[in-house]
């Protein structure tokens, strides 16, 4: 596609033209998925391992790039996230087989893995490259093709990362086009991808509006809801350890993980000791006047001030007009209410932590429940306690699907400081109006065809274990519309060869001519 055709698309705003562009990409992805489906586990994991190694080696470079491009977060922490979502991710799932048939002799059931096919994956600006890594490797381990749509604020680093991983996948033997990325995403184009019948599943990580759009696309979608994690510190907790974990979590990457603690809830007997330990750990406990200044800066009539997203505590303090020590990592704002009348009890993707003191454990748990019903239902919560009964009561009270105990919530709920599945896509389940309540991972990108024998049958299934799967038909040829001729990662229209540009020019002209004829008839 040359500049002439691109100008036609820009001028006409043609939905049909956007649809044609999406269709070319998705048809290529369908071909790649069809061929990838024929790979055995050894060949599949060889591709995943090769891509993970390249991703790991580039973790620091892309961390720096993401901070430079978006303006928020901590490069050293983003490097950790990129590393955890590359080789560590593949190693975590190495013991699981998403490729070979599974046999249950006792139940007389054989399960055959069926990859989703073509995944359309949206990446957020807060965790851009780590999410790209995570979704690409999850797709590769399950033999799916994937099209990445980066957030405009992190477009350059995400595009480069996806292109790098695509080249690594092809060099390791993956089908051409198994990883693609939208170089210049627009809302109409993204909408075409989400609504296309050639998209098999949407992996939506980002803002609520985007997730709702994914769910309303008529295609299967796995989305997330907003976080707003309460952390309850009861009287049996070690205040030093609790403070250390909370600050470690709240300051990690300047709190852009949606699993970070939003409001700390404690009880009166524990409050003062906890404040002392929070100060020692790097927090600034705000006065009433300072809390009001932070409140005014962080929230306005349109909602959260996005300028504060992922900024460090000293920067936010300066913008709010308060003085804090240079080593401050978290601003703690005491509040007396939780709910619609207190904006500081909303989700805050920055190192500002609400601090609420309850009269009793029962009241603390009720306030944590209220916080999540206000916003963040289904997501995450944390508790610091040495009372098993209190931990169980709290977990039963809060309407979430992850309760992190005596650990940093940011890393714990995401599966990096606990044994939960590592993820950058948090399912919020029924409470959060989501289709998945687990930490999303490769297992959600494959379904299983179950062959079920009569339960009273005396059949033995030994022979099935040695039977190779036969896929229908020959391996298809790559589409001849010009798409496979270009780089597998680059969907920039100007990258197509001259012959392809001519073909696509004619296609666009045909579409526009049809629209003009329809308009004239009307």
Write up what this structure looks like.
43% of the residues lie in helices and 14% in strands. By secondary structure, the chain is an alpha/beta fold. It folds into two domains: 15-224 and 440-492, Aldehyde Dehydrogenase, Chain A, domain 1 (3-Layer(aba) Sandwich); 229-413, Aldehyde Dehydrogenase, Chain A, domain 2, CATH 3.40.309. The strands form four sheets. The chain has a seven-stranded parallel beta sheet, with helices on both faces. Strands 5-4-3-6-7 form a five-stranded parallel beta sheet, sandwiched between helices. α7 packs parallel to α8 and α15 packs parallel to α16. It starts with a helix and ends with a helix. 49% of the residues are buried.
Offer a quick outline of the entry:
The chain has helices spanning 3-12, 15-36, 41-57, 59-70, 75-84, 87-92, 128-141, 155-171, 187-195, 208-215, 239-250, 268-280, 288-298, 313-320, 361-374, 388-397, 409-413, 498-521; strands spanning 102-104, 109-115, 118-122, 145-149, 179-181, 201-204, 221-223, 229-233, 261-267, 283-285, 299-300, 303-304, 330-334, 352-358, 381-384, 403-405, 446-452. With 522 residues, the protein is of the alpha/beta class.
